[in-house]
Amino acid sequence: MEEKVVISAANALDYKGFPADKSKTGGWIPAVLILGIEFCERLSTMGIAVNLVTYLTGIMHLSSATSANIVTDFMGTSFLLSLLGGFLADSYLGRYKTIAIFALVQTLGTIMLAISTKLPQLRPPLCQAESPPTLCKQATGYQMSILFASLYIMAIGTGGLKSSVSGFGTDQFDESDEKEKSKMNLFFGRFFFFVSLGTLMAVTVLVYIQDELSRSLGYGICSMFMFTAILIFLAGTRKYRYKKCAGSPVVHILQVLVAAFRKRGAQIPANEKLLYETTPEGSRIRHSDQFRCLDKAAVIMKEDPNTNNIISPNPWCISSVTKVEEVKMMIRLLPIWATTIIFWTTYAQMITFSVEQASTMERNVGSFKIPAGSLTVFFVLAILISLAVYDRLIIPVWKKWKGKPGFTSLQRIGIGLFLSAVGMAVAVLAEKRRLTMVKKFGRNTQTLPLSVFFLIPQFVLVGSGEAFIYTGQLDFFITQSPKGMKTISTGIFLTTLAFGFFLSSLLVTIVKKLTTYGGRNGWVGDSINYGRLDCFYGLLAILSFIDFGIYLVCAAWYRPHTAATKLQTEMVSNKGSSTEEKC
Question: Transmembrane segments in this chain: where (predicted)?
């Protein structure tokens, strides 16, 4: 009887801890289960965030600026906490447990939010129909504290699982197998498709339910989707491929920095082969000349005694060339990281002030009235159409013309930044038109005789920008980071969203403070009908074009890493091993 040959996936384990059998684990079926939880997370998060500003202004009676800042702070915290999720996944829990635990936390947050919006004692009394916003009774501190508790428990869950979902999905494909590697490349497109599909359902079905039926029902549906996704995710436990925790990348980075600082007075040898290197030949990274000061971490000090009896030298004293190059790779990502933050600041306006703009405009299509939050459907449709055009039209043409499979990640990011800058310039013109109608018909007019479709161009341009910039960022941060730091690099990518939202809150606060002197209403006041939102959008448009110019410089400066093409001489001689446990 012939014994069946088991082919194992490289560096992957099954749920029992044995080498993962390729025929029984991984592939598209487990990947789709993982995509399912990302779909439900996006549905839940965006179903709440995109329409939250209308709840805060219309039900809790908060000012426009305060409501916008609450939404952007909530979203910013959600993405910032992805660093926490990445750290726990890499160091202790692994991606599977991280996703399961934080998905449960997010479900708890949505349940609390559904309850808090259902109980009348957690909302202020209704406002008189003809009363200006300033005379409505605002929510009390107690009512707001319950709302904040619900939102930030949800933010913890969202941040915890987001950094691990894409990484765990790619774990289901073996990079050493060319056939599976091609499938993994397709995974990123499908990942963003599921993200966009979840957003589409959120801004259409869920927003309609919240506005026309019940807020608590809409939020309850979010809870049910998340709980169902968790059950489906757990059902795939036996089919998943798992990777061992490699330890915290943050610690590895700190070790290189500390070792370089301790040897700051050392002379770097002219021959790079004299630097310390013990990494297996197939995993080495070629030495680069950028950030030469970090090379001191790999300098072998002459005064170090021979320590052949030391199996593993103190990593806080000396680091291999590959470890140093990994840190250099992470540093090279930072300029691109910094110049993409402003995009997410403009994106924040699409789910805050732009939704509030829509709430003041004519939204009827026949007998049907479009919910203000649902106008972002054009934003999502622009994303999906842009992705389809890129995949089906641009890639084939580009491959035939240039011989390359589409734009590079940096080119996609640049296109996204430019489109968003143009989008904010168009938003200025649309708001000027709306304010003209405000002056003509009065600031307290409930619905201006101006079609909400005037806002479509800004949604389409910024939405198309997101299609390019999100896929470009995800591709860039995962492919240009070291293998052992892909989860944390995904978390770093998501912090661009976090800082973009926080920057939006900061700008709103600063602009409000600087423009409300002498009794003026300011650019962003209690109501957008009393402010100059066009000036605020103009400021963002200027900042976006400046940022685009800076990005072009940073993209030209960036140099991708290269693997070693020649086998480097392994430094395992007495001289190469002359490092000691005590520095």
Answer: 74-93, 100-119, 139-161, 191-210, 216-235, 333-350, 370-390, 410-430, 450-470, 491-511, 536-558
